[in-house]
Amino acid sequence: MSQAHPTRRADGSHRVVITGVGAVSPAGVGTEALMEAVMGKQCCIAPIERFDTSEYEVHIAGEVRGFDGTEHGLSKKEARRFERFVQYAIVAADEALAASGLDMDAEDAARVSVAFGTGIGGIDELQKGFDTLSAKGPKRVSPLFVPTMIGNIAAGNLAIRYGMKGECVNVVTACATGAHNIGDAVRSIRHGYTDVALVGGAEESVSPICIAGFANLGALSHADDQEAASLPFDARRSGFVAGEGAGALIIESLEHALARGAEPIAEITGFGSTGDAYHMTAPDPEAEGIVRAMQQALDEGGFTPADIGHVNAHGTGTPANDKTEAKALHDLAGAEGAKIPVTSVKGAIGHTLGAAGAIEAIVCALSVARDLIPPTAGFAEADPECAVNVVTEPIEGIAQKVALSNSLGFGGHNACLAISPYRA
What we know:
Elements: E1 16-25, E2 28-29, H1 31-39, E3 46-47, E4 60-61, H2 76-81, H3 84-100, E5 112-117, H4 123-136, H5 145-149, H6 153-162, E6 168-169, H7 177-190, E7 196-203, H8 208-217, E8 245-253, H9 254-259, E9 266-275, H10 288-301, E10 308-312, H11 319-333, E11 341-343, H12 346-349, H13 356-369, E12 372-373, E13 389-390, E14 395-396, E15 402-409, E16 413-421
């Protein structure tokens, strides 16, 4: 990197840093609650409280329990009108914005963007709307049904709340949604289309129709013991555990961050995005698309596989996903792939779907910033078909050049973020 332009990359494009993070997760409200749960191997999965599961095959999930938006900055009107995924997004974004110190009154609002997605959107409102239509007829459907339910309304409401007038988008790639929103905004900042972006993902997927659909698809663990349900890379794994919440990040060009006196948490040094073109739900067992996404992220940052400090894996706990992701790491790094530390936060909080890529990017960023590698809750029995180095206890005091955060989605969507400690 040229000493004359320390805020730029070798190709002249902007370096992109994270200056604020916020989270709502099954661990509770706030990033520190999330990090404490992940580092402490706490199981935040429990019997579903939101609805009666007596007729369901699945009875547990990673719910955001006891959440009341009015206790976290929302007005009573907002808490009444906004769907849960929007409320989660706002609370996480409020935290991220406050942590970043970004003052919108001092910003050119047209240079501040929002890229915030959801995999499913307002599923509760959708179900309620259909019930009303069926039981009471079309005239009784709420006039706010559509703007309450649609997935882009989280991004829209965030832009309205903070007065951010740059690009406002909702990238939807199922369980890779959070990571793709971050990655797309990184590219916009890198090439000068915007200076700052509020990015992330949110989901309210612990709902009757979602649990029924995922369960009937065979994607969910049917275990009733919450401690033995979400088991990334474990030989006993049998499916993922549905979770919910939101992850929000403020990312900006390093030049802009330094000019306003912000302190970067970490740097997003690379992004990879590929498609499998293979199957509607199953990952390509050859793992070629995942390998390309990881290689793209490394290449963009000028790294090799030997530089990887750890991989924050997608690691859902489904038989096919974990086996494929393990193969991808071996294909990327050869024999050394078996030595690279691998972790998955889904053992602690379940799979938060459209929020997962954002929540996991936050964990990954704080991990490299704090010189640590989180453990994987739930992992106990190694699977010979997933021969990766799963971290079982917290590792501290380990400086890393770069860590990778993987996200994979139904439809064959692959995203990989390369995240490094910030160095001037």
